[in-house]
Amino acid sequence: MIKLDHIAVLIAVAAIAALSLWPLSGHGEGEHEEEHGDAGGQGEEHGNAGGQGEEHAAAGGEAVHWSYAGAEGPEHWGDLSPDFAACKTGRMQSPIDIAAGASGLAVGPPGHDFAYREAPLSILHNGHTVQLNYAPGSTMSIQGHQYELLQFHFHAPSEHTVGGQAFPMEAHFVHQDSHGGLAVVGLLIEEGGAANAALADAWAHLPAHESAEQTVTDVSVDAAAILPADGRYHHYKGSLTTPPCSEGVRWFVLSQPITMSAAQIKKFEAAAAPNARPVQPLNSRLLISPN
Ligand SMILES: [Zn+2]
Asked: Which helix (H) or strand (E) holds 16?
């Protein structure tokens, strides 16, 4: 006879399996169509390395303007365009607050592997954030699924919060699999004494205003050197944090923050802050946290 606690374990295992396998079992199905059928691909989390600026210009000739304050701010994104409806009606939106005590089910970290390599520095300011496009060939394997690193960019303050507290900044490493599925690694950034050496070259070329992509061939950036030593993460199913707020994005928010100097943070803030969407309700989603 099956005891009650066995049933609870079975349910928990099934829930983990469902979350872990997604989107492995869903290629080409509804969720992915939704994710990639949206117009423009203007979200910062949307990939297309090297194409951000062009996409703005080419999106049917009518890129809808949005911002982080006022009449075009986050509370109104869903009303600015029918393409942005998910910003208002979505039930699996990002970012979220990561409860200090780790809500949901505590599990060990699933197997993952970052195989990033150095790439030429290619940097742009798209009007919402500073983004570094990444040359092909850097991958992340997570739960047996491989994604390619397309770009990373920054938010100030952080978009994900921990126990209600925001960090000064957050980096988003945007990955895409061969089917177009997106996975974003969120990296919380706190202020430390020393400058972040792995980002020093990029910061020396940080655009102060909206500007086209600039590739500096004699300067390289090493995404692997930016990652913290501890690879454990919080995992949940979410969305782009910018319009069109498309859902179907797998989020991995690393538990260990990295540090940047006050001067580095201030330089980014002067260029692009504030550019954080407020946290969204978790609703019925699972947040899987390391134990
Ligand atoms: Zn982002």
From this structure: helix 4-21
User: How do residues 128-163 score in pLDDT, each as one tens digit?
Assistant: 999 999 999 999 998 778 999 999 999 999 999 999
Length of the chain: 291
* Residue 212: both structure tokens together: 């086209």
The DSSP bridge pattern shows strands 233-239 and 247-254 to be antiparallel
Quote the mean pLDDT of the chain. Answer: 82
Cα-to-centroid distance, 247 and ligand 1 (Å): 14
How many separate domains does the chain show? 1
CB atoms within 10 A of CB 178: 10
CA distance 147 to 6: 35
Which CATH number characterizes residue 73's domain? Answer: 3.10.200.10
Range of 88's domain? 4-290
> Which residue is associated with the tokens 């208002």?
88
Give residue 111 CA to ligand 1 midpoint distance, Å.
24
Catalytic residue list? 128
